[in-house]
Specification:
5-stranded mixed beta sheet; alpha/beta
């Protein structure tokens, strides 16, 4: 892929239509080793040659400095150094991916960008048992199609956990103090997110609100558990809405994404009356529109504890009124 050629990143609307079909597109890149890495195309704003970087003192490890990009000053991170890959070249990568997520823009230095592939989310797996120095920064694994001509199996692609990289590089700001929900009933929220960093922050917010919670690690696990709760409620003559006030879902998840999960929930009458809130680092208007099209009741960009709490409070109040 030509470093200055962003033609593969131009069809945002077409790619947005993949959401809800349980498919995603991944931009493949290398860090100078034999491993292949990937990042969701939705998080990449552009790909360019590495510009002149201004060094600054007291930068976190892995942050090479700052650049000015169309009037904005953004930090530049060397992914090879952050991941501490054995055998990675010491020189900086010649290509920069400009990423935008969680309302933050960063430059990621890589050795080379290859191409974009389209994969089914059910072909994307959690990285259990992965042995790698970069393991904690990998959120999922998928496999390239096999090379039929050479008779070789498909190579594995490690999909980066951008939230974990951010937390490791820049630190995790503490969750602000939040007032608990003021009513006389016990609230319950079920949430699902494949990022350990996100799960920790969500749990901190819910704990401060005084809301009891359960969670799942991916969309398929969430749907399996929610279906089990619904079946149990039916058998006991109850309703899932008596047990759950809100379902909080991530958008990007292995095995089943949040759009498909939401569509399952909204098409199943057993979950009538339970609002679904999508909580995602994909914060563009296109992603919000896609969330609305599958029926989410609210869309919250990661991660602002106060905004998340302010979104949940009125929904919890409605649930309280419904149960009275």
């Amino acid at each position: 892929m030509d470093r200055a050629d962003n033609s593969l990143l131009e069809s945002v609307d077409a790619r947005t239509r993949l959401a809800g079909s349980n498919r995603m597109e991944i931009l493949l890149f290398s860090l100078g080793t034999s491993e292949i890495f990937g990042i969701n195309v939705f998080k990449v704003r552009e790909v360019t040659r590495t510009p002149m970087i201004t060094r600054s003192p007291n930068m976190p490890s892995g942050v090479e400095g700052l650049i000015s990009l169309r009037g904005n000053v953004i930090p530049v991170v060397s992914l090879g150094r952050v991941l501490n890959l054995a055998g990675a070249p010491q020189e900086l990568g010649g290509t920069m991916m400009v990423t935008e997520y969680n309302k933050r823009t960063l430059g990621f230095l890589v050795n080379d960008v290859d191409r974009i592939i389209r994969v089914e989310w059910d072909k994307v797996r959690a990285p259990e048992g992965l042995v790698s120095s970069s393991q904690s920064f990998i959120t999922a694994i998928t496999e390239l199609p096999p090379d039929s001509g050479a008779g070789q199996p498909g190579r594995l692609v490690s999909i980066l956990d951008v939230e974990q990289i951010m937390a490791s590089t820049f630190g995790e700001p503490p969750v602000v103090s939040l007032a608990p929900v003021q009513d006389d009933i016990e609230h319950h929220i079920f949430f699902v997110d494949d990022s350990a960093v996100a799960r920790k922050k969500i749990a901190e917010v819910l704990d401060q609100l005084g809301v009891r919670h359960k969670h799942a690690l991916n969309g398929l696990e969430a749907w399996t558990r929610l279906s089990g709760m619904a079946s149990h409620a039916q058998q006991t003559g109850g309703s899932v809405a008596d047990e759950l006030d809100i379902i909080l879902v991530d958008a990007e998840m292995p095995e089943m994404d949040g759009y498909v999960l939401t569509r399952h929930i909204k098409s199943d009458p057993r979950f009538d009356g339970i609002p679904v809130v999508m909580h995602s680092s994909l914060s563009s208007e296109a992603n919000r529109a896609m969330g609305k099209s599958v029926g989410v009741d609210a869309y919250v960009a990661k991660f602002d504890a106060e905004i998340l709490a302010d979104t949940l409070r009125p929904l919890l109040s409605k649930s309280h009124a419904r149960k009275e």
